Amino acid sequence: MKSIRLIIGLMLIACSVNGQQVRFFKTSDGESLFYTRIGHGPTVIFLCGGPGYSVNFLQQLADSLSSDFECILFDQRGTGLSTTVKLDSTTINLVVAARDLEDLRIHLGQKQLILCGISWGGGLAQIYASYYPENLKEMVLISTMGPDLTFLQTFEDNIRMRRYPNEKDSLLFWNSQSDSKDADLKRLLFYQLPYFFDHNAGYKIILKDFANISYNPQVGDLMWKDISKNYDLKSRLINYKGICVIFKSRQDIVPESVAYEIKELLPQTKIITIERSGHYPHLENPNSFYLNFKKAFLTPEQIR
Fold first, then answer.
1. Which of 116, 137, 109, 129 is nearest to 71 (CA)?
2. Letter string b/e over residues 176-215, b meaning 16 or more CB atoms within 10 A of that residue's CB
3. How far apart are CA 302 and CA 304, in angstroms?
4. Is the pLDDT confidence value at 7 over 70?
5. CA angle, 130 as apex, 125 and 133 as ends, to 5°?
6. Vertex 303: Cα angle to 297 and 304 (nearest 5)
7. Where are the domains of the chain?
8. Which residue has the higher pLDDT, 252 or 12?
9. Average pLDDT, stretch 40-54?
10. How does DSSP assign 215-234, residue by residue?
11. Residue 234 pLDDT level (bands cut at 50, 70, 90)
């Protein structure tokens, strides 16, 4: 425990030097969850995918908004800095995940939240919109999962179809190796390549941008068990009346129909398509993505 506190203390110092602040809040059930704050202005909370990945994967998104917004990189329960928590089916589930965001809203003193989520993070934003529709002003969803699990079979088919034979062989090989930093990175590399439109570009991006991302498989397993049983938001999501913007990539493994299923429930939804990109448009086609990204958010003047 002392070593964990020392590491967190050192990270607090390091982040302060870099113009960022690492802080924590207490949840309704007494756990401490951490977030990194960067920039000044209206608050935007970033939600990473997985479930189970650390939010530092979204650092570039936060940096792009930090001149006009206060960006909150939230490490969800059991991920990143927020790992000294109880992990079981009573703490890692959809209801608790939404409640953690509500606790964060109260901690930040916000009347309403602005959420930006990628992949599972987009699903989590929809969960919050379903349980706390009056407390959400805007959600920006990137390569998001749908409002239920009807997309999942096509999603899995697309991954299998886009994994080249040599990548499949490499993934099998690295899965058979003993755990090590190199083996973990190679497993991630060959698992993630089908998520990219251009696998050659994906190879370079993964080695560069994924190397320092942490993943908690226990969180992923626990959350997916609850998702498989309880993830159907359609009857609740229709109560959300705030802004919804979806970034979908033309060549995403998530089927294109997902964005339109959300729009059918939320007619106010605006859909922005990024060409020649897979699941991570901010990495694979950054010029097109960032041209539209900041425009997706209400301006500080509009929020005031």
1. 116
2. eeeeeeeeebbbbbbbbbbbbbbeebbbebbeeebeebbb
3. 5
4. no
5. 90
6. 155
7. 20-149+216-303
8. 252
9. 96
10. B-HHHHHHHHHHHHHH---H
11. very high
Residue with tokens 């756990």: 31
Residue 161 has pLDDT above 70, yes or no: yes
Please report, for residues 23, 177, 233, the alpha-carbon distance to residue 229 in angstroms, rounded to integers and kept in the order given: 33, 33, 12
Beta-strand pair 136-142/243-249: parallel
Token pair 């919804």: residue: 244
Closest CA to 27 of 88, 122, 97: 97
pLDDT for residue 300: 55
Nearest CA-CA partner of 205 in 100, 294, 266, 285: 285
User: What is the structure's pLDDT at 211?
Assistant: 86
E strands, the chain, where?
Answer: 20-26, 32-38, 43-47, 70-74, 113-118, 136-142, 243-249, 270-274
Share of the chain above pLDDT 70, in %: 92
Q: What are phi and psi of 263, to 5 degrees?
A: -65, -30
Q: Which two tokens stand for residue 36?
A: 């990194």
Structure tokens at 212: 């320092």
**Per-residue pLDDT, 302:** 65
The CATH H-level superfamily of 20-149+216-303 is Alpha/Beta hydrolase fold, catalytic domain (3.40.50.1820)
Return the SS3 of 33: strand
Q: Cα(265)–Cα(68) distance, rounded to whole angstroms?
A: 31
* One-letter amino acid for residue 144 of the chain: T
pLDDT digits (tens, 9 = 90+) for 277-294: 999 999 999 999 999 999
Strand partners, 248: 273
Integer Cα distance of 87 and 231 in angstroms: 20
